[in-house]
Amino acid sequence: MNSIKNVKFEANDEDSEKASNSYLMSLVVVIVGLPLPIINLIATFVFFLSNRKENYFVRWHCTQALLSQLTLFFVNSYSIWWTLSIFFGGEKFSNNYFAYLFIALFFNIIELITTIYSAIQTRKGIHVEWWFFSSLTNLICKP
């Protein structure tokens, strides 16, 4: 899902910390909102809003973190609704359901690892671009 490209980017210590926190926001909130994917998205969005007027490095990483959380929101929401429809709606477990859960779990694990890596690298002032999300972020976030 995510191929990472490192590029050295000019950022001071405060900017590096804010950019790193944009990724850490979703990790901290996972503990509170694990069953509800909307909580991660809201927390990341609030952090994005509070830093949207910061310098380009911070805005760029806040935007990339928000886009990744938005994608995971849809993947995880579908998983939750499908599971609830099985338990309360009379649907039955199927191979398609388990395949989707496996893929959703895989995406979540990859996103978790990538988020941790990105938080560490951006804290060092290294610009980290994720394979799919960096192109979208470049379209949205202008210097």
Describe the structure.
The two termini are 26 Å apart. This protein is mainly α. 75% of the residues lie in helices and 7% in strands. Helix 1 runs parallel beside helix 3 (56-88). It is built from 5 helices and 2 strands; from the N terminus they run βααααβα. The longest helix has 33 residues, at 56-88. The protein has a two-stranded antiparallel ribbon with strand order 1-2. It has one domain (4-140).
How is the secondary structure organized here?
Blueprint: E1 4-8, H1 13-33, H2 37-50, H3 56-88, H4 95-123, E2 126-130, H5 131-140
Helix pairs in contact: 1-2, 1-3, 1-4, 2-3, 3-4, 3-5
According to DSSP, the number of beta strands is: 2
Strand order of the largest sheet: 1-2
Gyration radius over CA: 16 Å
Integer average pLDDT: 82
What is the percent of helical residues?
A: over 70%
**What string gives the helices and strands in order?**
EHHHHEH
Structural class by sheet pairing and helices: mainly alpha
What's the short version?
By secondary structure, this protein is mainly α.
List keywords for this structure.
143 residues; 2 strands; mainly alpha; two-stranded antiparallel sheet
